[in-house]
């Protein structure tokens, strides 16, 4: 099963003053897991990484094109003292997400070619 996992950091309102930070910061990931328990482990690992780093590295637009396709530098470091709390949003992905082969060709996980429109 494939899931879209968003780790959300709520910014402390008083820390937003004078910055261009939104109310919520998002780190967005796409994961394929075999069980709900494996999905919980993934979310806990992502959350622990933020706590261990003492902050979040977030893209200005978390839903923009992946950095593996286009080199982007639109990321911000937000230290933990500016984050009130963390939460997660998990959405199941319907259909097959394409992958990029080492040759640069887009296919599905089952090997079907993806037609660009």
Structural summary, described in words:
With 117 residues, the protein is of the alpha+beta class. The protein has one domain (2-107). It has helices at 13-16, 36-53; strands spanning 2-11, 24-32, 55-59, 75-79, 83-92, 99-100, 106-107. A hairpin with a 5-residue loop joins strand 6 (99-100) and strand 7 (106-107). It is globular, with a radius of gyration of 16 Å. It starts with a strand and ends in a 10-residue tail after the last strand. 6% of the residues are buried.
Quaternary structure: single chain
* Extended strand count: 7
- Look at the structure and give the mean pLDDT: 83
Gyration radius (Cα, Å) is 16 Å
Largest sheet: 3 strands, antiparallel
Number of helices: 2
Distance between the termini: 26 Å
Summed up, the domain count is 1
Helix content: 10-25%
Strand neighbour order, sheet with most strands: 2-1-5
| Class of secondary structure makeup | alpha+beta
Secondary-structure element order, as H and E? EHEHEEEEE
